[in-house]
Amino acid sequence: MIKKLKKPLIFTLISLMAIYPVGCGKKEKTEEEATNNVSVMGDVTENTVKLSPNGSVVEISCEDYNGTDVDISTLQDYINKELEDFNTKKGTTKASLLEYSEDNKFVKAAIQYNDFESYLEFNMLNTELSVYKADRVEELFDAVKTATKTDAIDKADVNLEELAEAGYDIEDLENGTLGGEGDEDASATDAVATFTDAVTNDIVAASDISDPSYMMLITNEDSNYVINSGHVVYYNSNAILKNSNTVYSTGNGTAIIVFKYDF
Questions:
Q1: Is 158 exposed, middle or buried (0-12, 13-18, 19+ CB in 10 A)?
Q2: Any residues with CB less than 8 A from the CB of 63 and at least 6 apart, and which?
Q3: 22, 37, 10: which is closest to 99 by C-alpha?
Q4: Which end of the chain is less crowded, N or C, counting CB atoms within 10 A of the terminal residue's CB?
């Protein structure tokens, strides 16, 4: 099971500043910001991760500090220090602060990573990004296939959270209606990994998807995912399609997003 981080790591660390304050002050905008003046964050108000065909990642972290003791005047320097330490450890610049804003204690920070691995390491995540693999998707259902070999589910022995991650309706599980009555093959059918087609809304089995150009993101994070220069093809029940290139991962289970870059 993929572990979930409750909020972006950088803001989890920042929250500690109420106890361990650091120096105050803000750094000037980076040379890149001063040159092109185009906002990376725009009107984004929710945690958002943008994936690009060149492998780079832009993470926009949003946090409301109203009602907290955090001195936000120190936050930008703190973020820069964390990034500086990370880059020093890597021996090269792997991550940089593109943009930062404060509005009535609502803070947004856009960090660019050279590659997906750097994004994972900095945030201590185990989110997966790879070429689409049906067998990897079906691995997430293996426990469910075993648990649903009988029509009745003993909720004392089955982890409902894991079943929810696999796309089952928890209400059906709690009511004991999974699979229906008298259908010997119901459990096997219910355990098939499926996706929703982003265009037609049809339900498609994971094993029926085989396009080698498709990419796959597997995450437990509560965040929006934007596919730059690409579009969403399929998504599972723990994800919500917002538009043709944006999906929201609910954070209530493992979201699987299948997408394609428009080369």
A1: middle
A2: 7, 8, 11, 14, 106, 107
A3: 37
A4: C
